[in-house]
Specification:
It is a single chain. The protein has 377 residues and is an alpha/beta fold. It has 15 helices and 8 strands. It has 2 domains: 12-18 and 40-64 and 224-305, no CATH class; 68-203 and 314-373, Rossmann fold (3-Layer(aba) Sandwich), CATH 3.40.50.1820. The two termini are 30 Å apart.
Length: 377
Amino acid sequence: MSSGSPMISVSDAELHDLRARLRATRWPEPWPVGGWEAGTDTAELRRLVTYWADGYDWRAHEAVVNALPNHLADLDGTPVHYLRYDGEDPAALPIVLTHGWPSSVLELTALAERLATPSRYGGAARDSFTVVVPSLPGFVFSPQRPTLTGADQTHRLWHRLMHDHLGFDRYAAHGGDLGAGITSRLAEAHPEAVAGIHLLAAAAPAAYEPAGLTPEERTHLDSVAEWVAEEGGYQHQQTTRPLTLAPALTDSPAGLLSWLVEKYRAWTDCAGALSTRFSDDFLLTQASLYWFTGTISTSFRPYYEYGHGLTRRVERVDVPTALALFPAALSRPPRSWAERTYRLTRYTHMPRGGHFAAHEEPGLLAGDITEFFRDHR
């Protein structure tokens, strides 16, 4: 597949079916609670569903998606979709950016453009990267891996993509959420090729003595436990019984949107006003991509696999590592906690932004990545 080749082509019949389902949504009985207290706000969801059915222009966004620098790699029979942005400097350092859940490569395009062509954003061409943005297996454009176990784990696919397919002997890596774990395992498995990694989240140490924790680390673990109790229901469901949930979200576009949009609001530095960070059109394009490709079910697989020991834990990462923590991120570990697992050489508290930092604050994130890798080019 060459740059600009169409990645998605939705028939008129598929589009008609989506709109018919949206218009025929069977709404639940209302509860005597308001707003987002018990989950997705019904009034806001109804507004989005109405716009999705009767105002949102899928064809315009389909054209934007298909105009991206799309490529498809065949890694010994395993297809992987990726975007490629060539750096404006001939000596640009290659970097692979990995998204998380519930995301797609669309969330990383603004970041990728800033990293590849920094001179357009007030930076220097010498700081440019050649940026590769793969779609996670089972997420929208990359088919799921054929087996739950085996050598084709995602971090190994990424090395084959960067080193074997694209021919980069040395490259950098960045990731948040699921992408942070994949990036960590990539660096752990291939330190000879990975120049350094930049993360938005850190893997917990494989082992530690509770008695040896610092007060700051104890506070961090308490905050993680509190978050799991208050916000972790989705994670528990996707880890334990994902296929019970999957038919409902695959059959009902309103249900799919409800599952997604609640996370975008809860995990974003938006003070409850989601529109300050994500436009309706962006949210509905993400939901449409999951809907038309039927991949919400397969996007749950990383949770199930990790929860059942099919994806190994990160043990120790010895390549130079940067950790950037945004104020609305799901977890903000102290430096000492990250240093138990990583060779941490940069640790930054960002002034604003959340879980979807690449979309919320692409300039801040690009700046932090650029500064970190100046010493590792």
